[in-house]
Amino acid sequence: MLKYENNPEAPALELISTADLSDWMANADPINSAWVSQAGFEAQPNQFVFLPAAHEEPNTVLVGIGDKPSIESIGALPSLLPPGAYQLNTNNKDIILGWGLGAYRFESYKTTKTGLRELYVGSQHVDVEHEISAMGISRDLINTPTSDMLPHDLEGAARKIAIKHNATIEVTTGDELLLQKYNTIHAVGRASISSPRLIDLQWGPSDGPSITVVGKGVCFDSGGLNIKPASNMRSMKKDMGGAATVLGLADLIMAKKLPIRLRVLVPAVENAIAGNAFRPGDVLTTYLGKTVEIDNTDAEGRLILCDALALAVEENPDLLIDFATLTGAARSALGTELPAMFSNDDSVANDLIASGKKIMDPLWHMPLHEEYRYLLDSKIADMVNSASTPYGGAITAALFLKEFVGNVPWVHFDVMGWNLRSRPAHPEGGEAMGLRAVYQYLSDRFA
Length: 447
Ligand code: BES
Ligand code: ZN
Ligand code: ZN
Prior knowledge:
This protein is α/β, with parallel strands linked by helices and about 450 residues long. The chain is built from 15 helices and 20 strands. Strand 5, helix 4 (about 95-100) and strand 6 (about 115-120) form a beta-alpha-beta unit. Helix 5 (about 130-145) packs antiparallel against helix 10 (about 240-255) and helix 10 (about 240-255) packs parallel to helix 15. The longest helix has 16 residues, at about 130-145. The two termini are about 30 Å apart. Bound molecules: ligand BES and zinc ion (2 copies). Ligand BES binds near residues 239, 329, 386 and 416.
């Protein structure tokens, strides 16, 4: 937790890089330097030692940041330092951001909360506040159990963000989806107790460059009639991670008032099982008009996304970006901590990679390998929703989406949406992977 003021009573964090440690030792009070070396302190990131010198009041905590400051330098301290208040004077934004991201906790369902670590940073750093709270919005949405995060709850969350920033929002729900021809969103979501819907949020100057972001909002993915085994289903409250990421991104863009025209599309559904569930073998006519034969009801994300993407390209935006927890195959390819990025525009993709590197939100460029398109051929419809082989599953999923975006510059992120382990600045649980990279890219390009 960050406080944008000073607290003279709180112990001060004194940051030190590995390069500066020997100088520090040479100049320190001998009691302190002996203590620090006995403690084995090497100024590694997130390493800390309380200094003993008796005349220091309040205490000083010597904190390592490694060889250079980054969001990881002190991003683990909010769970390592004893609970309490600390003061930090630094002009490095990444250091403060790392603390803010690392201090995130999801404790709404805990009756006893963990002790707070508050970091007083003075008033010059308020600009990181928006980034931290946007990431918090995404993480909260993902972490919230499905019983409190069904499609109507996701709509509520989007409405809250729209009201906060004076954006307009329209939601098409239930049978109305059929009248507007969003057949895939309806088919995937109709078996749920909470009606399927398409959320459409718009904001910003009408003459600005138009950016549309689309997020997979599968509030729970049981697999549908192709039901998932228990171990795979366990984590599927996070299958709205794409929606959570674009809503957090939208909050950040609007809070920082980026000069763009923003549109956020979230198809929100639960892939549930009931007598009216869609089935393997059914053929759906998508919003674009292409027909899809359902091979597997567990490949539902690409179905709801294809109608949202087809709607998005109708107004020919300058850039179209989607986020989705789309395939297990992307995780087989890259592991859980590196989002897979696909794009029909190499220069946008290269710039995004560079933006991600700059701020430690890594992405990996994957190929839209057209030679695999045949894997989506159907005997009775224009395509199937799931290839007959799991090999290259992230690519075939991306190729499916590509059928619906025409010539619009488009980027697709296949993300985990979840930290399986805690890392500095990345606590275990829901995570908005790629959000900061995309924000950085947009602000470099348009601000
Ligand atoms: N939501 C899952 C993908 C997923 C699984 C993302 C685990 C992250 C972690 C998606 O709807 C799904 O079930 N995909 C299938 C596609 C297959 C049926 C073609 C998959 O990846 O197995
Ligand atoms: Zn699925
Ligand atoms: Zn899914």
